[in-house]
């Protein structure tokens, strides 16, 4: 096994669908092509949105599609001490501050999301106007109202190389702004880690060297790059794969019909059908490969592992109308 470490990281906020499956399969093929250690991490840190049945179903979905991993699953909600330690490190370095602003406060103070003239990005959330940013270590914490801890963004790093999209750049101050690394609570001890901090701490702890995920998370990567730097660690490489969307150009949801993996499994669809579709629509297997349709699940996986190269991965989203009829 090489020194490379990759990860599958489903979030049990609902059922896994075709888009999730393709991203996980690409991550799996890349990991096995590198002879990397592959970990499974259950990203259940967003407790209010977690569905109690979704973790077991996600594991069943991944195994049904022929994927495996090394070691036991890592569960984020069991790792609070690590996140608290990282938060304390950021506090000591002056990189975070308490913020009691409500979403309504931020939306009222921030301008509407707009496309940056410099980078072409539309912010994925209202850019924080800095209302609480004057706080410094030693100042009192907010009283009588809940607060989170917010990370101070800097002007750099403002670019990174993505294995699918090439060099990606943004203006971190203008396009992103300071962001929360904890959820709100009425005391610092009760401010539990939020997604951005948890994933960085987990990747550092596991020694992850490659992150594969959907390209709707590119702006989150800029947030996480600054967290890596503030915590004193080099970031992994990143590959943001195009989304699978409906005909309206939006990522898959209930409005696009039932694209849940559990639905296809219950309907008797063989997993090979989905894995072949993922291989073809990702760009790894040309439609002209007639023999591809006769291969077993293990043979399909081995072929994709043998063929894997990031230069083959498509940069454009795949549009799904009725599954079985897709357009690149």
List its salient traits:
13 strands, 328 residues, 3-stranded antiparallel β-sheet, ATP-binding, Glutamyl-tRNA Synthetase, domain 3, 2 domains, alpha/beta, zinc, single chain, 10 helices, 32% helix, zinc ion binding
Description:
Helix 6 (195-206) crosses helix 7 (218-230). The model has no long low-confidence stretch (mean pLDDT 92). Helices cover 32% and strands 14% of the residues. It has helices spanning 18-33, 54-64, 80-92, 103-109, 172-176, 195-206, 218-230, 261-266, 271-282, 297-307, and strands at 5-8, 37-42, 74-75, 96-99, 148-151, 159-162, 166-169, 179-180, 210-214, 237-241, 244-245, 318-320, 326-327. A three-stranded parallel beta sheet has the order 1-2-3, with helices on one face. Strands 4-5-8 form a three-stranded antiparallel beta sheet. It has two domains: 5-78 and 242-327, 3-Layer(aba) Sandwich (Rossmann fold), CATH 3.40.50.620; 80-198, Glutamyl-tRNA Synthetase, Domain 3 (Glutamyl-tRNA Synthetase, domain 3), CATH 3.90.800.10. The protein is elongated, with a radius of gyration of 21 Å. Strand 6 and strand 7 form a beta hairpin. It has 328 residues and is of the alpha/beta class. This is Glutamyl-Q tRNA(Asp) synthetase. InterPro entries: Glu-Q_tRNA(Asp)_Synthase, Glu/Gln-tRNA-synth, Glu/Gln-tRNA-synth_Ib_cat-dom, GluQ/Sye, Rossmann-like_a/b/a_fold.
What's the layout of helices and strands?
Blueprint (H helix, E strand, L loop, with lengths): L4 E4 L9 H16 L3 E6 L11 H11 L9 E2 L4 H13 L3 E4 L3 H7 L38 E4 L7 E4 L3 E4 L2 H5 L2 E2 L14 H12 L3 E5 L3 H13 L6 E5 L2 E2 L15 H6 L4 H12 L14 H11 L10 E3 L5 E2 L1
Cofactor: Zn(2+)
GO cellular component, one term: cytosol
GO molecular function: ATP binding; glutamate-tRNA ligase activity; zinc ion binding
């Amino acid at each position: 096994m090489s020194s490379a470490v990759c990860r599958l990281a489903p979030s049990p906020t609902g059922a896994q669908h075709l888009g999730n499956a393709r991203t996980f399969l690409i991550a799996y093929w890349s990991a096995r092509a590198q002879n990397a250690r592959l970990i499974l991490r259950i990203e259940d840190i967003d407790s209010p949105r977690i569905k109690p049945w979704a973790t077991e179903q996600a594991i069943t979905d991944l195994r049904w599609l022929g994927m495996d991993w090394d070691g036991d699953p890592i569960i984020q909600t069991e790792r609070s001490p690590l996140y608290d330690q990282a938060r304390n490190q950021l506090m000591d370095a002056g990189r975070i501050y308490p913020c009691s602003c409500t979403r309504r406060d931020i939306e009222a103070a921030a301008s509407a999301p707009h496309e940056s003239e410099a980078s072409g990005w539309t912010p994925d959330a209202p850019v924080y106007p800095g209302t609480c940013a004057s706080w410094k270590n030693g100042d009192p914490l907010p009283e009588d109202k809940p607060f989170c801890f917010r990370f101070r963004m800097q002007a750099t790093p403002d670019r990174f190389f993505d294995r699918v999209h090439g060099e990606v750049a943004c203006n971190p101050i203008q396009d992103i702004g300071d962001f929360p690394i904890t959820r709100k609570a009425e005391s610092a001890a009760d401010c539990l880690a939020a997604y951005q901090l948890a994933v960085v701490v987990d990747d550092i702890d596991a020694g992850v060297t490659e992150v594969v995920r959907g390209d709707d998370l590119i702006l989150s990567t800029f947030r996480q790059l600054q967290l890596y730097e503030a915590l004193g660690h080099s970031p992994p490489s990143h590959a943001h794969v195009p989304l699978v969307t409906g005909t309206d150009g939006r990522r898959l949801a209930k409005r696009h019909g039932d694209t849940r993996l559990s639905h296809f499994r219950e309907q008797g669809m063989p997993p090979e059908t989905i894995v072949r579709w993922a291989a073809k629509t990702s760009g790894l297997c040309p439609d002209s490969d007639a023999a591809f349709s006769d291969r077993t699940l293990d043979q399909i996986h081995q072929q994709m592992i043998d063929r894997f190269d990031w230069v083959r991965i498509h940069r454009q989203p795949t549009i799904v109308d009725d599954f079985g009829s897709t357009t690149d």
